[in-house]
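Methods: example folding runs. The two proteins below were folded one after another, and each record is reproduced exactly as written to the output file, sequence line first and C-alpha cell line second.
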Amino acid sequence: MGHREALLDGARRCLMERGYARTTARDLVAASGTNLASIGYHFGSKEALLNEALQQCFDEYIEQITRIVFADPSATPLQRVRASWEALVSMVEQHRPLKVAFVEALAQAERVPELRAQLAECYERARTTVATVVRASVDGLSDSTARQVASFLIAVCHGLQMQWLLDPQRAPTPHDLMTALEVALPAALSTRPASP
C-alpha cells in the first residue's frame, strides 16, 4: 500500500475514532504509518485528506443503502422508500462516528470555503446516486424530476438521522414517517382547499 492509500485508510480510522474536529495531522501520521510531508504531497492539507476520506465513507454508505433498497426487485417505489428509512435507522449506531464527523465538518464549513465546496460536492454526488435509484424505481421520470425527488429524500434522511443521533427514544420511526407520508401526500396533491 502506497502512502496515499495508507493516509486515506488512517484518516478513515481517525474519523471513526477521534472525529473530524479532534483529528490532528500527527494523528493521521500515526494511524497511517507515514510522515507529515506525505499529507501535503498527496492531499495539500490535513483537511483535504479528511474530506476525501469522509467522501469515501459517505459513498460506501450510499452504496450500502442502495443495495438494501434494491434487495427486493419487485418492491414498489414506496416500499423502497420505507426500506431505505428502515436501513438508515438500523445503521445509526454502526455509522454514528461517521455521522458525528460529518456534522463536525459541516460546522467548520461556514468559515472554510474549500471545505464548504468539498462537502457541497459530497451532496452533489449523493444527489446523483439517489437520482439514479429514483429513476430505476419510477418509470418515465425526467432527470430533473428524479434529481428533485432525490434532494427531497436526502433532506428527509438527514433529518431522520440527526433525530436518531440525538434522541433515538423519541425520534420518528420509519413506520411513523410512512404513516405521515400516506396522510400528507394525498392532502398535498388534492386540488380541494384544506378545512380549517
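Second run, written to the same file directly after the first:
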Amino acid sequence: MRILLVASMTEEIGKTLDYLEENWEKENFFTYRKGEHSITHLVTGIGAMHAAFAIARQQDVEKYDMVVNPGVAAALSRTMDLNRVYLIENDRIGDLGLERSNGDFQDLHDLRWVDPNQYPYFKSSLVPKKLHNPTFLPTSSAITVNKLPGHYLSIENFERKYHVDIVSMDAGAVLYAARMLQLETIQYRVVTKYIEAGDKQNGDIEQALNQLSMRTIDILEALVKPENKDDKNSFMDLFN
C-alpha cells in the first residue's frame, strides 16, 4: 500500500515521523518503507489554498492508495471533547460566498454558483469516496473556513447555518483535491479549543498533538498490518 500522509504543519505529524524513523526504513527525506508498504509525508502549509495546491502538485499523486490526513480543529459543539480525535465523515466549505446587508451569509451552493450535487459535492457537502475508520474513531461533521469566527454574531451565524461539530482551515480542501484525483481518504481532527467569543485558549495543545500522533500511528499500523509486535512498544515510548 502507498500512503500519502498529509498535514498542514510539521507539528501535527512530528511524533509520527519519529516513530517512522525508528520502525521503518527511510527511503528518502519524505518516504519510509516497510516491505511492500510505503508512507510519504507532505506538509502543505496552513489553509485551503495551500493544501489543495500541494496535493495537486505532489509527484505521481494519482498512484497513492490512501491519503491519511490528521490535523487540529476547533469545536462549534460543546458535546465535543477537548483533546479527543474525531474522524471526519463529511465537510462543507463554510465561507466562500456572499454576505448580505443584513449579515446573513449565502455560500456557493445557496447562490447556485455550484450545484449542490455537482461532483464531488453531495447535498452541498464533501464526503470521502469510502468512509474508512480502521481504528473506530468517533465520527464528526466539519466545516472548512479561512477565518475562525471570534465575534459572537459570526459564531451565531455559523451555528444557525451549519449544524456541524468542528471547524478546520484545510480539511475540506484536502478532501476536495482527493476526490477530484479519485483518491481514498482518512481524515481526522483533534479538538484543541471551542469556538467562542474573544481570544480564549481553552485547550492543551501539547496534549492534543500527542493524542493526534497516537491515533495517526494506530491508523497507519492498522492499514499496513505490521507483523513486528515490538513496534507498539517503541511507539508508546515516545509519549513516556
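Comment on the second run: The longest helix spans residues 205-224.
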